[in-house]
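Input/output pair, single chain:
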Amino acid sequence: MRRISKLVKSVLKTADAHCDGPCGVYDPASARIAGEAVQSMTKKMMDLSESDADCSSASYINTMSRYASIKEEEAQKCKDELLVLWTDYFKPVHLESNPEIHNIFWTAAKLCSACKVEVSVIHAQELMDAIEEIHNLFWATKGKEVPWIRAS
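Output:
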């Protein structure tokens, strides 16, 4: 048993990293793309529900279910991407110069949750506004002016 313990200790090395995967690649663009999908699906759901379609038809139910599924998946992706930025990229030094960071990210994460469980054009737009604020904050920490450009 003692030999095994010595062998394990000699093989294992300690690795230090600032996050789970020390790649150092961060960008709020992935949150923006997911947020845009949330907004798009929300608008499609609203348009479909306001159309003259038969809400009890299999086609309507299938389409609405697909829109809802995509909206919820993308809202979760958006939340995951934002949480990685918040917890892995932003450091105490960033908080010193931007004390509102925690509230901005907390609000954005709550909006992701709201967009998952609701069909609200208003919340979808508020989520996009929050992501834009995070985009601007993120790039400011790097001393770069990167324009906010939407894919849709």
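Residues 26-141 form a domain with the Four Helix Bundle (Hemerythrin (Met), subunit A) fold (CATH 1.20.120.400). Helices lie at 2-11, 29-50, 58-89, 92-97, 101-117, 121-141.
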